[in-house]
Design brief:
4-stranded antiparallel sheet; 4 domains; flat; mainly beta; about 575 residues
Length: about 575
Amino acid sequence: MIMESLVRSGIAAVVFLLLCNSQLLPQISASDTLLPVVSHQKWGYINSQGELLVDFRFESAGSWGTNKFAVVKSDGRFRLLSRSLTLSEPMEMSNSLIELSDGFIAIKTQDGWKVLNESGLPLSTLKFDWIRPLPTQFFLFGKEGYSGVADLNGNILVRPAYDEIVWKSGGSYFLTRSCGDYGRISRNGNQVIPPLYNSVVQKANGYVQVRYGEANTAGLFDSSGVEIIPPVWTSIEQLNQTVFLVTNEIGKFLYYTKLGTVDYSKNLDAILVSGSQIIASTDSFSGVLNDCGKWIIPPVNRRVWGENQCFVTQNEYGYNVFDTIGSPLNAVPFADLRSLEVSAWLVKLGESDWGLLQSDGKIAERGFETIGSFGNRVKGRRDGKLVSILLRKSGEIEELNSWSNVVELNVSSFTGISRDEPVIKNPTAGGRWFFDGPSRKWGLRDVSGKVIIKPAYNDISHNLPYGLTKVYICEPVYKTNFGSVDIQIGAKAGLVDPATGKVVVEPVYMDVVLTGPADQPLIFGVTNRMTFKRLDAQQQVQNRLYTWVDVGTEKMTRVLWRGSLTL
């Protein structure tokens, strides 16, 4: 009795026959990869090691691999062969078999595809034009030219009414296409978004963006299919959980999902998100909006930026600092403001009155005539003393030191700090540097053209006022500026007299700085501790400097440049 007759008679069982085997063959394990082989026009199966596991007795044998069943032909009829070497009753089928999940299989019969459970029982009387397995309890099927979805319990979840169905996002939903338009169906078969749109794209935070009509305008749905923003916009950009930037031919506007409205009164030029707040710029001014569209910082500022969990504004009156709800931390605008690498700012409270502003609005220190910073350290001159402040990441003061042995000198004949001149690429200004192409390094010749320094430096910079050349033995990573000094981070710097070829300073410092008179320069090497070390021949003598100097007995000399502190 064949499977079709069993199904028509309502008998939900399939009788399995033991495959008689006179040979003692190895047993088949669940992990064996089985391959069909033929001998004397009879088919059997071997494993990947070449061992014969099913002897040559079938008229044909389909591929098996690691599946639970194979389709074989015996006595002119197709049957299912299991790994326990049992054969099903004959079935009206071809040798086509598809493995579904959980041991279910699909077989192709003369009337179409049928689904069987792991015991070989038919799932239902339904037959399909085609079947595609999914990595879940579902499978896609085709019927009369349309696509549908069914589960392994025999339930039709999505009726065959779509041109195409695609399983998306790890199995959380189906993307459908009908007459060229796309929609979305949940894994339970419920229509979430009807197939009316040019595209349906999953976005962040569970939102789904659609494009609609000939104008291809954009709209937004939530994951349950509720329309959040109607599809009438050129573009939609999510700023935070509840606010979107929408654009059309008129301009850029904010759409508030809490209110379900768009604010047409604010045609914005630029948007910057800071937490749940939005820094918005109009034609001329900038301010801060909350997620309900209220200006918590009015748009009367030239600049607004977020920093240290606060907002900093700049307008014609100076600088102001606000907390995240728009409350000001200062009553009077600051004349100047400098950002730090910690949660604090240097602010100018008045003439010769710089202070340290913490993110809670407290002025921790003030009264500095000049002030500067490097990393988490701030140094400045106050009441004739050099003050050094070490800050925590929070902006709180960890350590405060001051030195009273600081004197002010005013030497008008000094040339001031000299900056790096352009790299000398020809023998001018007393130098005869040359660039060696193969090694890509710089060397030096004397007046006769003899090489007195072989190519050894990756970079050079000739200092015209002093007639000396800075040399670097490795490629600088980048330059940064501390007050009036350019520091070559990542390079080891030295100093060479190009007139004689004498190495004045060995290239072991982060950088070399020259100052003082042109005929008797002061030379400082920048150490890896970011301190200035005196290197010139007069280093033991108290030389005159044009600004503030710690004249202590230590070899390390602290220099406070005019207008800003470097160390």
